[in-house]
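Complex record, two chains
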Amino acid sequence: MITSEPLWEVFIRSKQGLDHKHVGSLHAADAQMAIENARDVYTRRMEGVSIWVVESKYIHASNPDEAASLYDPADDKIYRHPTFYDLPDELKYM
Amino acid sequence: MENVQKVFDDKIAGEIKIEPKDWMPDEYRKTLIRQVSQHAHSEIVGMLPEANWITRAPTLRRKATLIAKVQDEAGHGLYLYAAAETLGISREEMVDQLLCGRAKYSSIFNYPTLSWADIGAIGWLVDGAAIMNQVPLCRASYGPYSRAMIRICKEESFHQRQGYEILLTLCRGTKEQKAMAQDALNRWWWPSLMMFGPNDDASPHTAQSMKWKIKRFTNDELRQKFVDVCKQQADILGITIPDRQLQWNSERNHYDFGDINWGEFQNVIKGNGPCNKERLSERVRAHQEGKWVREAAIAYAMKRKKKVAAL
């Protein structure tokens, strides 16, 4: 039973070829109104070719307190970066 | 066990943004809720003195640009309410605080717009002061607030140009038009200076806000910058800032200026400005008259949900 307008997160793709970025949130009774409101609030200067709205309650987020243990495995694997590899200067196209 | 206060302090010191799910001191959260929600209220209430002249704008171009500006102010309020909500306060509660008179909004919007020239003065001085305040806020330590401010600053610059261009047109027009521009400057100058808030030694929140990197410059620093910049701009218009003590000080490399009537400021903040009651009653009326729209939208959404569930 809805008694008030739920909160929606808004994602906008500003140009064809780019991905959607989170720009903020708004309240609306349903998805269609959320999209229309998002157009009015977030695209007054043609900053959007595509709008996604998701009810905030459906966003799941990682816990910043657990960031250390969550990202630890990635922390010491510098060999994932191309600069780790020592190659001669005269080598081209690599 | 991690010291959450130290993690927070290190982020502030290292210019790393604080985001909604991060631990933060209660006072940091409280002060941001207060500042961001009052900033939002200011944008919404600020629509009123300008909307007053939409139907009487002298040309179609002036009308279109004024409407666009007022729409932007609505948008700005909405970005800021959204940012404030990430701190744990609901939209309903913030709206309630405004409509019940418990929340403050910028004192400047309690003054009336008496002539078309006022729209020019507001764009030049009020938006000008807002920009001066808002650019440093783009670097505020709280992520959602800083991102909202970056959006707002991008949109704000046309506001000031729109206003200045109005005054330029009037000042280059007839004698009566120039006089109207001078009159608007006379009425809006001092209230605009008050927008920067009390003097530093009388500002209770400044020290803590600066420690938390919410605020980057003090009230007096910003106010001085504003005076210096506006004097040159007024000279181009050919109108006079209504301050007999305004004078270049070559030692300080700034303009000296007269004392602000803080009594007037306090009185307006308390609710006794020329338009406080009118502004609030207008907001209350809009909220009440819009109730049926909100209820209808929700009823329709519920009906559709039931229909879909029944399929």
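Note: The radius of gyration of chain A is 21 Å.
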